[in-house]
Structures are given as C-alpha cells and as structure tokens.
Amino acid sequence: MSQPDPTPPRRATIQDVADRAGVSRGTVSRVLNRSPRVSPDARKAVEQAIAACGYRANPHARSLASGRNDAVAVLLTQPQQELFEDPTFSLLLQGVSDAMTGSDTALVLVLAGNDEERRRAVGFLDSRHVDGVVHLSPHANDPMLGALLEADVPVVVCGSPGPRVSSKWLRTVTIEDRRGGYDATAHLLERGARRIAMIAGPEDATGSIDRIAGYREALGRAFDPAIVAHGDFGPRSGRIALAQLLERDPSIDAVFCASDRMAAGAYETAHELGLRIPEDLRVVGFDGHAIGLELSPQLTTVFQPIKQLGRTAIQMLAEWTNGSDPGHRIFPTELLVRSSS
C-alpha cells in the first residue's frame, strides 16, 4: 500500500487565476479589490477562474501589500437604545448589509452615544484599523465628525453634516429634506388647513433643520415660530409636543411631524383630547416607516429611501478606496398621501 504524500497541495496563486481566465495579474487584482475599472466579461472570467482554482486570498499579505485593513466602520452617535427603537437605523444597517453581500470586507459597528463610547471610538477610528467610516447620525457641531476628519480616513455621512463642514475626507449621501418639508406643508394647505404647526426634531439635527426650512418656505408670511415645537424623533416627544402646542394655540388644525414616530405620539394626544383625524386635525409625518400603515387612520407621510442611503454609502466608500471620487449623492423624497390628511 502506498503511503500518502505528506506534501500539502500547492495553494493557487493570482498567476494561476490569471492564466486560467486569460487576463493579466493586474486585472485579477482589480477584481479582488472590487475596482470598477474592470469590464463585465473580464470580471466574470476572473470569478469563474477563482472558483475553478479554489483560489483564496491571504488577507494578511493582501493588507500589507495594499495598505488596506479590509474593514469599514459604521458609526452611531445616538444613544444605544435608538438602534433598536428607531427603524431608521435598522433600515440604514440593512442597506449597508445588502451592499456588503459577497464582500470579504469586515463590518464594524461603533457606538458613540456617550463620553466614554466617544473616547473609545476616537481612539479606534483611523486608517490603522479601518479603510473608511459610514456615519449614520450626524448633528450640527458634531464632535465625533471633527475627530474623524482629523484622522485622515474617508468618511461618508448619511445626511447633512451642516453647511459649514467640508473636508477632502468627507462625502455625503442624503435626501431632499427641505423639499420634503415643503411638500408636506403645501399638501396640508391644499387640503384646507389654515393653522399648521410643526413638531420638529432636535434643534441640532441637520435633517430636521432643513425640514423646518421647507415648512417655513411653504407657509410664507403665515409662518409663526410660536407653533413650532421640538422633539427627539420618538413617539413620547411627539405626544408631549402636540399637547403643548394645542394648549398654546387651540386653533391649530394641522400638524407636520418631522418623523413618523413623533406623528404616532401626536395621534395619542389627539385621541386623548377627543380630536378626530383628519376632521379636526390633519397630520403628516416623515420617513415612510411601516408604523404609518398601522395607525388609524393611516398616516400621510414623506417617504425617504433609507435602505438606499445605507447601500449607497458603502458603494461610495468602495469607489473611494479604489481611487475614484464618489462625490456627493442626494435622493428625492416622495409624498405618500393617505387618510390622515
């Protein structure tokens, strides 16, 4: 009986893949690094050759050769419970996960909702550990964003970081928040509302600031800052804000909420006060979350493509790390008219 050969089988190399695919080593390398500068035919041939050869990249050697870490971070600066309570963040993460399908790049979730978490995050988020960062929750005067931009690591922000923030390391993917606020308010005016209040998000939330600007633009001279209240995007704050607004001005006959969750809270207050929606109070939300379909009557809302934002942020980072400037991306919103208005 012959003895088994103790010599381990030779590991397939990039040259083996290139020879089988009939392309250069450089083309194989570009496919492995997800470069957009590869034709569809060449990419398919390389992928088939990789499968046939059983080629597996050596991640340590690849990292040393490329200067990459094969890891990207997703940063959340909201309190931890928001990750589970606010569907906006779960949808953003779903989009991020979708874009990572089939990739060898590791995804690292970094929480920075308090001082201790921010200290740890600042020490970790640099080019020694990650190739780029997707920032999910920007605010005006965000200390984390300033620290990231000083770390010389590519950052894609899902939302606007504010008008005075710019850097060669910063790109944004966002929506037309101002247009969404305008469309919501113009719709309420068209439906006959005369005294339209607004429940906005936190005063330093850049998306909410832009939604207020759209609301104000639609109202023109009828704009009254006395009937603008601020919440935290959650339902409890919407419930409290509407109660305060109606106490301040009982003539309010419509309210635009900067999130669907705050609109759900406003529904609670309206029901407690015996106000019928939409007969006594017209309500419009913002986000397009499933909760709007669960409310009775169903909520008119401004839809934003949240999953697409997360997916696009990762695609932009991939382009950027492969040498192409992704620029800035902006997506339109859509008014979904239902029974509440």
From TrEMBL:
UniProt-listed Gene3D superfamilies: 3.40.50.2300, lambda repressor-like DNA-binding domains (1.10.260.40)
Record's keyword terms, sorted: DNA-binding, Transcription, Transcription regulation
Entry superkingdom: Bacteria
InterPro entries: HTH_LacI, LacI/GalR-like_sensor, Lambda_DNA-bd_dom_sf, Peripla_BP_I
Region (Disordered): 1-29
Keyword Oxidoreductase tagged: no
Signal peptide: none
Annotated HTH lacI-type domain residues: 12-66
GO molecular function terms attached to this record: DNA-binding transcription factor activity; transcription cis-regulatory region binding
PANTHER family the UniProt entry points to: HTH-TYPE TRANSCRIPTIONAL REGULATOR GALS, LACI-RELATED TRANSCRIPTIONAL REPRESSOR
Name of the molecule in the record: Transcriptional regulator, LacI family
Organism: Tessaracoccus bendigoensis DSM 12906
